Amino acid sequence: MISKAEVRPGDGWRYLFRGVMVGDGYRPAGKPLRAAQDEAGVPPGVWRGQGLAAVGLTAGDVVTERQAELLLGEGRHPDSDRIERELLAEGKSPAQARRATVLGRPIEHNQSPKTDKAKERTPWLGMDLTFRPPPTAHIAWALMDDERRRVLELCQDISLDKTLSSGRSSR
Question: What's the whole-model pTM score?
Answer without folding.
Answer: 0.66
